[in-house]
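Researcher: Here's the sequence for the chain we discussed earlier.
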Amino acid sequence: MTDRNRELLERLWPMDGQLALSAEAEHELRTDDYVLVMPQSGEQITGRDTMRAMQQEYPNPPSIEIQQILGAGDTFVVLGRSNYAGEIYHVANIVEFSQGKVARETRIYGSPFEAPQWRAKYADPR
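Model: Thanks. This is the structure I predict for it:
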């Protein structure tokens, strides 16, 4: 199932540029009892139909640039950079599969920040 799960993620969220999220495409790939957890906001959305309804009502859906997909078996981490109307967030999305469909996601969003000067001597230039 590992290869199939990775292929599903790569098809859903390709790594070839900016991506607009698709409520319909994602809906088909989720389990009926799908759960989305967003720790920063304290939200949990339960059910693939509820998730699709939320996505369809989203006023200005963000775009996302997928940077890396890591994992094996039924657990993957998708790393990306998201643009919410000019606000940039780094995203770590923990994706858990059940029987070949996405059953649970935990999305963690972080804002970029300036590194402290004292660490500059340890960091590689980017």
